Amino acid sequence: MRRKRVLALAALMLCTPALAGTAPAVAAPQTAPTAAPAAAPAGPLRILLTNDDGYNAPGIRKAFERLTAAGHDVTIVAPLTNQSGTGTKMMSAPAISVKHPEPKVWAVDGTPGDSVAFGLAEVFADEAPDLVVSGTNFGPNVAGLATHSGTVGGAVAALESGVPAIALSTGGLSAPDPVTTVNAMGPTLDFAVKLIDRLRVRARSGPLLPKGVGLNVNHPIVGADGKGTAAGVAATFQDPQNFLEPDFTDAGDGTWKVSVKVALKPAAKGGDVEAVAAGRIAVSPMNSDWNTGPADQAVTSALISGLRP
User: Do the beta carbons of residue 273 and residue 220 sit within 8 Å?
Assistant: First the structure.
């Protein structure tokens, strides 16, 4: 991830206290993108809404209601079934099943990436949406979870097609409680509306976000009932740790039982884990590719210098 460039973007967007809670103390200058996507409209946005929990999950339905109430034109194009943990996977089957159970809702029997691909190619065939919103997810997508997240994967699929995207997740670092997590989706979506409005106002006649850059937003659970207000908003990066450790036990019949241990390591300063643990909303910019930036390119060039096939 090209952190220096994209973190500057997030810091600039969060520098006004009106967005929520406490703002970062210093806003870095914004770097101009090399190529700009389509300009954002001055009014409400046309939004493709997806997720990885399934088209009928509480998070996406609450998002549909809240974004629609804010005046946006929202269409759900999401997986038919729960696709959590599918990451950026996209199927290569010769056919795919798609249901249209109600107006403004499409259910794709595939991954979040498949859903976004179908939505852009068919549902929004005449004109691409102004924004793709993925979520809100049940549980957090920070650190290594984000790498394998279907919620984030849906947003990445949009970015690859040149459409601005935001991934939304709700949850703390402990095992999610169903009631408090669903309750916390309310504040999550209230913030999402503010964030989208900030993007739209700042864009004026320009792009919502620089080409190829999206936002991974993680909202903590605050208060015993989950309805509390976050302590602030932080421009963060994806903590490099992966705190889920798989454990395999030989069943003796050619199969292995799989379990997962949670081994949370000290949070990286300025990362998404640190922010969520402190009750703040983490907003991490992300790229649609795996490029790490000029510095690492130079290191790699030095590494292979003199090598021959």
Answer: no
Burial-class residue 53 by CB neighbours within 10 Å (0-12, 13-18, 19+): buried
Closest by CA to 31, choosing from 50, 52, 8, 10, is 8
Query: 3-303: which CATH topology?
Result: Stationary-phase Survival Protein Sure Homolog; Chain: A, (3.40.1210)
300 exposure class (CB count in 10 Å sphere: 0-12, 13-18, 19+): exposed
- All residues at 6 or more sequence positions from 282 whose CB lies less than 8 Å from its CB, including other chains: 142, 216, 217, 218, 234, 236, 271, 272, 275, 276
Could you give the 3-state DSSP secondary structure of residue 152?
helix
Delimit the domains of the chain by residue range: 3-303
pLDDT, one tens digit per residue, over 278-295 is: 999 999 999 988 877 788
For residues 291 and 1, give the distance between their C-alpha atoms in angstroms, rounded to a whole number.
Answer: 6
Q: How far is CA 68 from CA 61, 62, 65, 121, 125, in A?
A: 11, 10, 5, 23, 21
Could you give the CA distance from residue 229 to residue 184 in angstroms, rounded to a whole number?
9
Q: Residue 68 in contact with residue 18, Cβ under 8 Å?
A: no
pTM: 0.86
Residues 98-116 have pLDDT tens digits of: 999 999 999 999 999 999 9
Residue 109 DSSP class = S
Tokens of 173: 């670092």
Q: Which of 1, 165, 12, 150 is nearest to 84 (CA)?
A: 150
